[in-house]
Amino acid sequence: xxxxxxxxxxxxxxxxxxxxxxxxxxxxxxxxxxxxxxxxxxxxxxxxxxxxxxxxxxxxxxxxxxxxxxxxxxxxxxxxxxxxxxxxxxxxxxxxxxxxxxxxxxxxxxxxxxxxxxxxxxxxxxxxxxxxxxxxxxxxxxxxxxxxxxxxxxxxxxxxxxxxxxxxxxxxxxxxxxxxxxxxxxxxxxxxxxxxxxxxxxxxxxxxxxxxxxxxxxxxxxxxxxxxxxxxxxxxxxxxxxxxxxxxxxxxxxxxxxxxxxxxxxxxxxxxxxxxxxxxxxxxxxxxxxxxxxxxxxxxxxxxxxxxxxxxxxxxxxxxxxxxxxxxxxxxxxxxxxxxxxxxxxxxxxxxxxxxxxxxxxxxxxxxxxxxxxxxxxxxxxxxxxxxxxxxxxxxxx
Length: 398
Fold this sequence. Notes:
With about 400 residues, the protein is an alpha/beta fold. Helices cover about 30% and strands about 25% of the residues.
């Protein structure tokens, strides 16, 4: 609808229902649907400068509990007013009509149809723009309907193909709707289009929508909440990194034939480390850091003594296998940082070589540094080597 048409249009949101059948203990418009009041849902769509320049909310007589929701709905470009309703819907709509000012068109909407879309308003407005003096949204009736007498005896079976279940907003020429209300007196009509019909106006039906059901019973709230959940756009889950810590300790071997392998490198002439595999504490700490970050167990889970195929395996072999495990678990490896503590071997001259070898095995940056314990502990006593590793993983894109 053009801005000019919006300036000549007012919307009446009827929110004066008591909500007795809903059993919420508050006016129906304040009952919660997915944590927000029915009125808040309705006004989120109705208060839109593209639809109307004035919105009149009809509230329960003598009850100011809707005021906060009305105040929260205010928006630049739309005047939002509140007026107390009457004892019947017809009286409430009449009270709203008295507040629409010079509007030439008026849309009357039930707040209880809280999930009505902007598109439904626009379909009604389009019919008015194309010459209709009254337009209502409606759905085809899917059930067979029976007309009965006062004793519940069937008197006729209407052709359902010609029937429509009417919804809101209902759009009207404002002057004609005023006349229809004046002519109706105190008939207690529950449908403004019916008043227009009685006054000789032709009412045009436009396409309705399933979600514009009138919330009347507790089951309707449950349906509305399910519908909102189905329509919700999933919020992308933040791709957060995972960090894991690994620690490994190996004593020096008493076997003079045991060679020293550390950080994937061979150190000739150095005393080897004991262990089920080659005793490479640096590579083993890196494995545990990866497993810890991925939440898939530890070194013993995957390469324990119950796995004879890994007896004597090199640290580089185990690290490569560990990388495969975490990638199959859905992670990419960001980097691994490792520090080992020991008096020997002298490492500074081979640090860059160790970084290159382990980075090639992992397929991601790996850095290794070394330090001593200043003579403290078993490392300082020359009894063995300890290593600590931190691994960073990122969930792989699927």
